[in-house]
Design a protein that fits this description.
There is one protein chain. By secondary structure, the chain is α/β, with parallel strands linked by helices. The chain is 31% helix and 15% strand. It has helices at residues 10-27, 70-77, 120-126, 135-146, 163-168, 174-188, 201-207, 225-233, 244-251; strands at residues 2-5, 31-34, 84-87, 104-107, 150-155, 193-198, 213-217, 237-239, 260-263, 283-285. Helix 1 (10-27) links the parallel strand 1 and strand 2 (31-34). Helix 1 (10-27) packs across helix 9 (244-251).
Length: 287
């Protein structure tokens, strides 16, 4: 079994699942998810909407918790207890993952298609929704489906405005979004409707303007972000933020001719770098 340690929120956890699932497929073994933010090791609720393939982790492969047994946890981290730990080792693609064997535990963010490039169809199948949209999400789903020339656009604010993430990531500028939607409109010769998704929809509705018809989608709470992701995937084209959440909304987009525009600089802090986060044929625009 390959076990993946889950960390962060939905977008990060999807990268972690994808890397582990691809590795488990190559080795012909099962995949387990270790949600070590939960004492009961419960699979995050958003994954229940998706067609993911995981098995229960056997008791002998569940890593000890630091808070409950520091000694056993230390032995595990030193490699003296199973499962064997494999660290990503930085933020970009690590080819050493090809040497990882069965009964290993992955620690990292794995934010690159390179970790699951050879299993893309499997990952896309696993991330198909097995639930149906309801109420206002169903209405919005139908609205997007019936609208010609749609663009999903993601604005990440929240933790990008204060604290550690502000110093690492920083927000994309209004100029970036303007240039991105105009580039898509001119390249595709369309007059698009832009569906805007954000963790701060009130601010967006009051302050964010574009030269095209705009709909701010603001009815889903952070706990229900999986529904925003579903809506993103049915838009024709995508303008993403420097965010793993909109990365997946674009990557899973249904349109075979989709254009994905991404910010040229993922991190505002030059100490951090992950050139492998971009996919082939994505358009990069200065942010």
């Amino acid at each position: 079994m390959i076990i993946v340690g889950l960390r962060g929120r939905l977008g990060n956890q999807m990268f972690q699942y994808a890397a582990g699932r691809a590795l488990s497929c190559r080795l012909g073994v099962s995949l387990g998810l270790d949600n070590y933010t939960s004492t009961k090791n419960i699979i995050p609720h958003h994954f229940h909407h998706l067609n993911i393939k995981v098995k229960k982790i056997p008791n002998n492969l569940i890593p000890p918790r630091k808070k409950s047994n520091l000694f056993l946890w230390s032995l595990w981290r030193l490699g003296l207890r199973r499962p064997k730990i494999f660290h990503q080792g930085g933020l970009s693609y690590n080819p050493k993952i090809g040497k990882v064997t069965d009964n290993s535990y992955l620690i990292g963010y794995w934010q690159s298609e390179s970790f699951f490039q050879d299993c893309k169809d499997i990952i896309k199948s696993d991330f198909e929704f097995i639930s149906s949209p309801k109420l206002q999400n169903l209405d919005t789903y139908q609205e997007i489906s019936e609208t010609q020339s749609t663009i999903s656009l993601h604005i990440r604010r929240g933790d990008y405005l204060t604290g550690k993430d502000e110093s690492i990531f920083g927000m994309c500028s209004q100029e970036y979004y303007d240039k991105s939607v105009i580039w898509i409109a001119e390249h595709c010769q369309i007059t698009p409707t832009v569906f805007v998704f954000s963790d701060d929809p009130v601010w967006v509705a009051e302050n964010f303007k574009l030269p095209f018809r705009t709909r701010v989608i603001g009815h889903n709470s952070p706990e229900n972000a999986i529904e925003d992701l579903r809506l993103m995937t049915i838009c024709n084209h995508h303008v993403i933020a420097n965010s793993s959440f909109s990365w997946w909304g674009a990557w899973l987009g249904k349109n075979k001719r989709k254009i994905i525009v991404a910010p040229d600089r993922w991190f505002s802090n030059p100490k951090y770098s992950n050139p492998n986060i971009y996919c082939k044929n994505w358009v990069r625009i200065k942010n």
